[in-house]
């Protein structure tokens, strides 16, 4: 089965700085997404990462705060900008359309990036 | 706007019990419903996916059912084991593969 990796796996950052999280898939996928999981909460969709164009953001999330890139069919980045302690969360990428997956539209997740902002 | 609710929020059972986790959703116009497992500090593992046209899916000791008209899904775990201890998440796909998640059920299976 395909491997989805994220870098870094965790980080501790200072208020006001920015962190870029990478998501790499070892095969081409149709769709990529970014989710946030705040402490003790479930997952919330941040945006759909569109290949070669601007991401599509969900209500409550904006490009200036969470710029996203997707230069090709296997890679995406999420930047958390001008961080505050409220940004402390696990950030997860997910993909749809993995080659060899028989269940249509089954979604798979990366291992997550645990971010702590001091 | 889709809302997904999972009951119970937490569950503790002795090893060997059969158990049922519940998921309800407000908008029945779904494409599919997916059950995930999340271990502490880890990502999500896909367990089962039920398409909107299906009534149930089985994988090993797991069986998931879907009643789209009533907005309900259940995850049945047979003969529970301590290794089943995790948080189980239900997620609904309404359109565009954007998932709406429930709050999860934290399961503890005691030896």
Structure description:
The complex is a heterodimer of chains A (118) and B (111). The model of chain A has no long low-confidence stretch (mean pLDDT 93). Chain A is an all-beta fold. In chain A, the strands form 2 sheets. In chain A, strands 2, 4, 5, 6, 9, 10 and 11 form a 7-stranded mixed beta sheet that branches. In chain A, strands 1-3-8-7 form a 4-stranded antiparallel beta sheet, with no helix packed on it. The termini of chain A are far apart. Chain A has strands at 4-7, 10-13, 19-25, 31-37, 43-49, 56-57, 68-69, 75-80, 89-96, 107-109, 113-117. Chain B has 111 residues and is mainly β. Chain B has strands at 4-7, 10-14, 19-25, 32-38, 44-51, 56-59, 62-67, 72-77, 86-93, 99-101, 105-110. In chain B, a hairpin with a 5-residue loop joins β4 (32-38) and β5 (44-51). The N and C termini of chain B lie far apart (41 Å).
Task: Record the SSE blueprint.
The complex is a heterodimer of chains A (118) and B (111).
Chain A: E1 4-7, E2 10-13, E3 19-25, E4 31-37, E5 43-49, E6 56-57, E7 68-69, E8 75-80, E9 89-96, E10 107-109, E11 113-117
Parallel strand pairs in A: 2-11
Antiparallel strand pairs in A: 1-3, 3-8, 4-5, 4-9, 5-6, 7-8, 9-10, 9-11
Chain B: E1 4-7, E2 10-14, E3 19-25, E4 32-38, E5 44-51, E6 56-59, E7 62-67, E8 72-77, E9 86-93, E10 99-101, E11 105-110
Parallel strand pairs in B: 2-11
Antiparallel strand pairs in B: 1-3, 3-8, 4-5, 4-9, 6-7, 7-8, 9-10, 9-11
Which keywords apply here?
heterodimer; A: 118 residues; mainly beta; seven-stranded mixed beta sheet; four-stranded antiparallel beta sheet; 11 strands; 47% strand; B: 111 residues; six-stranded mixed beta sheet; five-stranded antiparallel beta sheet; 0% helix
């Amino acid at each position: 089965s395909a491997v989805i990796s994220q870098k870094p796996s965790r980080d501790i950052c200072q208020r006001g700085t920015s962190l870029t999280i990478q998501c790499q898939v070892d095969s081409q996928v149709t769709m990529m997404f970014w989710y946030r999981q705040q402490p003790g909460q479930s997952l919330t969709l941040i945006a759909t990462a569109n290949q070669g164009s601007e991401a599509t953001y969900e209500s409550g999330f904006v490009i200036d705060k969470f710029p996203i890139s997707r230069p090709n069919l296997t890679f995406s980045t999420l930047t958390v900008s001008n961080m505050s302690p409220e940004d402390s969360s696990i950030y997860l990428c997910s993909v749809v359309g993995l080659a060899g997956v028989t269940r249509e539209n089954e979604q798979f997740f990366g291992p997550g990036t645990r971010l702590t902002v001091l | 706007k889709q809302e997904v609710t999972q009951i119970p929020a937490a569950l503790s059972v002795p090893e060997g019990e059969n158990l049922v986790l519940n998921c309800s959703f407000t908008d029945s116009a779904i494409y599919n419903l997916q059950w995930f497992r999340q271990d502490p500090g880890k990502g999500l593992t896909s367990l089962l996916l039920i398409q909107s046209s299906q009534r149930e899916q089985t994988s090993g000791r797991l069986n998931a059912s879907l009643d789209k008209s009533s907005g309900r899904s259940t995850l049945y775990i047979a003969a529970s084991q301590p290794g089943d201890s995790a948080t189980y998440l239900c997620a609904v796909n309404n359109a565009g593969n954007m998932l709406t998640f429930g709050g999860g059920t934290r399961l503890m299976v005691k030896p």
